Amino acid sequence: EIVDAIVEILAGPRPLAGRRVLITAGGTLERIDPVRYITNDSSGKMGFAFAEVARDWGADVTLVCGKTDGTPPSGVQTIRVESAEQMKEVVMSRVPQMDIVVKAAAVADYRPLHREEHKIKKKAETLTLSLVRNPDILQAIGEWKQALPGKRAPVVVGFAAETMELERNALDKLNRKKCDLIVANNVAQEGAGFGTDTNIVSVYGADGFAEHLPQMSKKAVAQRVLELAKSRLAPEGL
Amino acid sequence: EIVDAIVEILAGPRPLAGRRVLITAGGTLERIDPVRYITNDSSGKMGFAFAEVARDWGADVTLVCGKTDGTPPSGVQTIRVESAEQMKEVVMSRVPQMDIVVKAAAVADYRPLHREEHKIKKKAETLTLSLVRNPDILQAIGEWKQALPGKRAPVVVGFAAETMELERNALDKLNRKKCDLIVANNVAQEGAGFGTDTNIVSVYGADGFAEHLPQMSKKAVAQRVLELAKSRLAPEGL
């Protein structure tokens, strides 16, 4: 207990003490058959950085994880999922209890229309895979928030991973998805995006806020974005 | 040096001393666009087990790795690749120098016909992905061996990961691919296949050999299969 107390003192202020934060991390995995799947390059590092910072700031953290490299941080409640549909179910059931929701996962936009029960044999020279749109979790949260006029709703942070027309795509996403903040990065840029330890992001707010951050560690990005989210929280007890 | 000498003595016999062994491990990764790809559940554990055993038995080991969980074993030459086409190029350029080739990687059978330069935007409700057959590396090795009559060629070990009709599919593959040994497992079975630490395999030889192994560690499977491969090696110096 003495050690815990010292750690607590050394840890400094706990600006998110008493707050509940939900973070999604990693890529979803959309199965084609029992052994094959479609996924993306997300490593989970950005989401893990958010989970660590929120935990260190005293929040009660729920981390919803798809495919990730490495192990989720300790001291947070981690829930493993595979597909976008599973992630949506877990997230939507928990969103109403949250103060801040950070959607750092790279959710697959499409999934195979049919999931084959047995491994597809490689008979044909070509194969056509029919894909259908996955549920849009950020959009679902936005719609749920809009249906709650006057009620206490979490601050929602979305991500836009783009390879071109970053600002236009990010602002368009912010607007369509009704999130409070959007963190945009060009995943094709050196030192940014998937798998790296650093990121280069711009943050846009529904209130017109815009900030272009230089290349910094994913942890520093998480700190800045959580500061921005905290300043948008409704006063406690409301 | 004293420690090395002790390790060498403790390590016991080195039945593959002076032999060159090439092992492929993990799954290949076939890109759809800059962030999305198709892959499979292979963890690389089976290939890593082969690399460890071959190294401990004194072989000069080359490990050709796709996507894997965890880190390749030390003391082997590791070459990282992404796609089946890259893996084929690396493997085919090295096969002629090898004594044993173990194709433990799960090579994607199909890849996207087109690789998009920019991230595909999720506009449409449905999407059709055209796939084409990947090069068959095991088949290419078999054809290369057949074109070398009387010459010294490596003992080739293939794998058959199936979810049904295991024996029929494995014997058919052994015959078509002209490998010396085939290791067949039902990847849908508990305690076998992808990601697990154990495997349940049957081994079939071009010489009519057949052996059904019980559930055992992937390392024990590698030991048994390398014994079988070693007994099929041409005498040294030939």
> What is the residue-averaged pLDDT of chain A?
90
Beta content of chain A: 25-35%
Classification by helices and strands of chain A: alpha/beta
- Report the total helices of chain A: 6
The domain tally of chain A reads 1
Level-2 CATH architecture of chain A: 3-Layer(aba) Sandwich
- Give the proportion of residues in helices of chain A: 25-40%
The dominant shape of chain A is globular
Structure description:
The structure is a homodimer of 238-residue chains. The two termini of chain A are 33 Å apart. By secondary structure, the first copy, chain A, is an alpha/beta fold. Chain A is globular, with a radius of gyration of 19 Å. In chain A, helix 2 (45-56) packs across helix 6. The mean pLDDT of chain A is 90. In chain A, strands 5-4-1-6-9-10-12-13 form an eight-stranded mixed β-sheet, with helices on both faces. A two-stranded antiparallel ribbon of chain A has the order 2-3. Chain A has one domain (16-112, 130-230): CoaB-like (Rossmann fold, 3-Layer(aba) Sandwich), CATH 3.40.50. Chain A has six helices and 14 strands. In chain A, a hairpin with a 4-residue loop joins strand 12 (201-205) and strand 13 (210-212). Chain A binds chain B through residues 32, 34-41, 106, 108-110, 113, 118-120, 122, 124-133, 161-164, 187-188, 194, and chain B through 32, 34-41, 106, 108-110, 113, 118-120, 122, 124-133, 161-164, 187-188, 194. Strand 3 (36-40) of chain A pairs antiparallel with strand 3 (36-40) of chain B.
